[in-house]
Design a protein that fits this description.
With 266 residues, the protein is of the alpha+beta class. The chain has one domain: q2cbj1_9rhob like domain (Jelly Rolls), CATH 2.60.120. Helices cover 37% and strands 20% of the residues. The chain is built from nine helices and nine strands. A six-stranded antiparallel β-sheet has the order 1-7-4-9-3-2.
């Protein structure tokens, strides 16, 4: 278990991320890997063209399309385990809510480049991005299932705007490319059993290689307006909730969705 949660909170506030090495046991990773590999193989079969042309991630891992009830319950229990909730609540202490899961892998095309980005850039123009990075909180909790090159992050950009260099590269201005190296980047290699927590809206990129396979769990502040990003099928049903040791993370999301439905009716 984490010894100093307050230190993690300080690290996150200052840098926008932290890493806990060897946080999960070999048996925990083995059990998780078995379920995730089943999802990945079925997903690749159904999305063969997309996978071979450009894909580097998939989502909705906890949904019902590829996994059975017991496998989904196993994932829900991992996501909301004491280990995970301790970390989540060190950053979002008030009613954190489950958003989604993503699976990151190496592109089929080995020549495909990675790229710098903030998650918010896909939903907001530049002026809105400047506001979003100060107003909202979405966490990525990355669990690598194999040793991998990891991530490259720009520390502190969860709270500050891009430098000129960062802006031009990230948004490919002035003939720059989003795959170019940045002088401010910090590479963080990851091993199976590690946990990387980082802000979705800081500048970051994944590093390809070593046949990476990493499960990302996305969590958000209940006060933020992200409920439209949640797919109903990725949440546990009532029967599953009874099998989850600590379902608060999912109950918070279900509650927010029910509030949204009520407001839309009225």
């Amino acid at each position: 278990m984490v010894d100093n949660l307050s230190q993690l909170h300080r690290n996150y506030n200052e840098q926008g991320y932290f890493v806990i090495r060897n946080y999960f046991s070999a048996s925990e990773i083995l059990s998780l890997r078995k379920v995730i590999l089943k999802f990945h193989q079925l997903w690749k079969h159904d999305n063969a063209d997309f996978y071979q042309q450009e894909a580097f991630n998939s989502s909705l891992i906890t949904g019902s399309k590829y996994l059975g009830c017991d496998e989904r319950v196993m994932l829900f229990n991992f996501i909301s385990s004491k280990k995970m909730m301790n970390v989540v609540e060190s950053v979002i202490p008030a009613n954190p809510a489950f958003m989604n899961t993503q699976l990151f892998f190496d592109p089929f095309n080995k020549q495909q480049d990675n790229f710098w980005h903030r998650d918010c850039q896909y939903d907001h123009d530049v002026e809105a991005q400047k506001k979003v990075i100060h107003d909202t909180q979405v966490l990525h909790l990355r669990v690598p299932l194999f040793d991998e090159p990891g991530m490259e992050l720009i520390p502190g950009t969860h709270k500050r705007w891009d430098s000129d260099e960062e802006f031009d590269v990230r948004l490919e201005e002035k003939r720059r490319l989003s795959s170019e190296d940045l002088s401010t980047g910090k590479k963080i290699s990851l091993a199976a059993g590690d946990l990387l927590v980082f802000s979705a809206d800081m500048i970051h990129r994944g590093l390809y290689g070593l046949d990476r396979l990493a499960l990302d769990i996305l969590v958000f502040e209940s006060a933020a307006n992200f409920i439209d990003y949640v797919d109903d099928d990725c949440l546990p049903d009532l029967a599953m909730l009874d099998k989850i040791n600590d379902p608060r993370l999912f109950i918070n999301t279900i509650h927010l969705k029910s509030q949204g439905c009520f407001e839309s009716v009225n």
